[in-house]
Write a structure and sequence with these properties.
Length: 106
């Protein structure tokens, strides 16, 4: 099964962080994939990814509008960087691109 993990964060650390997390979760689940999203918002880190989550993930999605804390934990993984607004508005398209990439590398 495909497993996608993500970390979302935005400059203000409020609405878009959580909207992007929800959009990524919904789009991945629509593909039948396992998904876990860590949010790094104004209230701190929620739903923190474990070492096991990272190890078992096929793809890591990181928002790129602001620095992601502890990004070094994803070294060696396939990382896709996306703008926070694209994560919110184009999550389905993002999952289609991930699916195509995974099919090519399978």
């Amino acid at each position: 099964m495909t497993k996608v993990i993500a970390v979302t964060a935005c400059p203000s650390g409020v609405a878009h962080t959580y909207m992007a997390a929800e959009a990524i979760e919904n789009a991945a689940k629509a593909k039948g994939w396992e998904v876990k999203v860590e949010t790094q918002g104004s209230i701190g880190c929620d739903n923190e990814l474990t070492a096991e989550d990272v190890a078992s993930a096929n793809v890591v999605i990181l928002t790129k509008d602001i620095g992601i804390k502890n990004e070094e934990r994803f070294k060696g993984k396939t990382i896709i960087r996306v703008g926070i607004s694209d994560a919110v508005k184009k999550a389905g398209t993002l999952m289609d691109k991930i699916e195509a990439h995974l099919a090519q590398t399978a």
